[in-house]
């Protein structure tokens, strides 16, 4: 056998375990969800039957689905730009030679390694009326912090705050790694030309960070539509479905109401939204991305 053919076979054999896991745990569940979305939910001795687009018609007329969809869009618009922008700002700062740089990096990254259940319980104490941290701080100034998680207007912003606090440090690590991979000669050349730090960041660093930004945006979009842990602990989707996001509604339909067919329909919509968002992001940012 030729060496080239042998290397090709060895390469495919090395890829086979990862490809098998990807097919079994990612591709097959997506295909199965699409198939089950056209069937009814089997109950007892009654097997599933083909119902066509009936589940999708039910979804179009479901007000809770549209509420969850709107909540998720606001959640994504509120968390993605702030978490990514904050991560970039933190990475630029801790990349400089500041006093206590290691401690600052550790402080920024600590929320990332905390379990989401622990984070949710910590922030529940912050938001708790009467004796929570925010209420105590507001009481010093003679104010009332209000019932954050019990208000339909404040519950979703409160969840956004927790998400940004949790994710910014995670995205910071990618930006920090990308900044440290840039050649120091770029900063030296910019300094010799008399460029300010803002000009150096905007004209040189930011364009070179475009591949990292694309990667971070894709992950931030996925995270915005897969959040469920802190909602399950903090609000259970309330009050009045004010914090019900799409994945949490899928969980309710599938495991609380045990309507697996309708849950599969909602899952297909979620996958389609994520695929569309990834396609738009790649199509728009890929042409503006400079790869070294």
Category by helix and strand content = mainly alpha
Helical content band: over 70%
CATH topology: MetI-like fold
State the total count of DSSP E strands: 0
The figure for the number of domains is 1
Percent of sequence in beta strands? under 5%
Question: What is the architecture at the second tier of CATH?
Answer: Orthogonal Bundle
The oligomeric status of these chains comes to single chain
CATH superfamily: MetI-like
Radius of gyration: 24 Å
Helices, by number, come to 13
Low-confidence stretches: none
The N- and C-terminal alpha carbons lie at a distance of 37 Å
Quick one: overall form? flat
Largest sheet: none
Mean pLDDT metric: 88
Structure explained in plain terms:
By secondary structure, this protein is mostly helical. The chain has a single domain, classed as MetI-like fold. The chain is 74% helix and 0% strand. It contains 13 helices and no strands. Helix 2 packs across helix 13, helix 3 packs parallel to helix 7 and helix 10 packs antiparallel against helix 13. The longest helix is centred in the first third of the chain and has 34 residues. It starts with a helix and ends in a 7-residue tail after the last helix.
Set down the secondary structure blueprint.
Elements: H1 3-36, H2 54-60, H3 63-95, H4 101-113, H5 116-127, H6 133-140, H7 155-181, H8 184-192, H9 197-208, H10 210-226, H11 229-234, H12 246-256, H13 260-285
